[in-house]
Amino acid sequence: xxxxxxxxxxxxxxxxxxxxxxxxxxxxxxxxxxxxxxxxxxxxxxxxxxxxxxxxxxxxxxxxxxxxxxxxxxxxxxxxxxxxxxxxx
Length: 89
What we know:
Layout: H1 6-9, H2 12-19, H3 45-61, H4 66-73, H5 77-85
Helix pairs in contact: 3-5, 4-5
């Protein structure tokens, strides 16, 4: 989150109206909910985890054990179970 001076981005009438409520303070203005992105969408982290999880599922289907996958991917056996027993939508 970066700081922006209201005098540079908002109309003077709006600043005067806002000053009735807040003066000289930092004010957070959230994005509309329609602009939210899920975690990892921008960075590609979500895509990377989805590919990893698909590889884990395929390895499990091909005969790898939960314990083997946990050791190979440095994850807990409970995490591996969640990955292999959850149906991807």
